[in-house]
Amino acid sequence: MRMILLGAPGSGKGTQGEKLVAHYGIPKISTGDALRAAVAAGTELGKQAKATMDAGGLVANEIVIGIVEERLGQDDARKGFILDGFPRNTAQAQVLDDMLKRLGQPAVDKAVHLAVDDEEIIKRLLDRAQKEGRADDKEDVIRKRIEVYNAETHPLLDYYRAQGKVMTVDGVGSLDDIFNRIIKALG
Ligand code: AMP
To answer: How many CB atoms are closer than 10 A to CB 80?
Structure first.
């Protein structure tokens, strides 16, 4: 299974992604996690990305593409993967399609879209801000990230719809209910 998780920040991609890892036994590749790790480790890449992340913008395509290419080239990703937070714009989606061809891997099977409305998203992210204290979970940055999602990432639904790969799942409810909806939709 080669799967992309699509949805606004706070739609549950990370949480459901973890459950899918356990279910399918394939790795999850999260560009957000990789970037936060690079920032925490103080690497050159982390330094380049930090200001953009703190402002809720998108980090340069070359940076995230490099992260994904390296990870997809590792052995455990050959039998499948769950992408969380990548691709984030149409250019990244096109690069991903080309990259899989180049790596001799089959194309993406499904793009799972977790649908959650903006008000619920803001509520969840403010709640997460209190619990986890992520640097980009502040109200003005949250609004910016939702704006960026709607402008840059949401159009990816059309990209994957054109390939017949989108499955939209209601992302509101208990974690188990949402997970069961995803599994059912994946068949
Ligand atoms: P996330 O944890 O997926 O919400 O990502 C946190 C932040 O990392 C985003 O707001 C972006 O600044 C950056 N980021 C993560 N993935 C990407 C990506 N595919 N393209 C550009 N920036 C990204």
So the answer is: 16
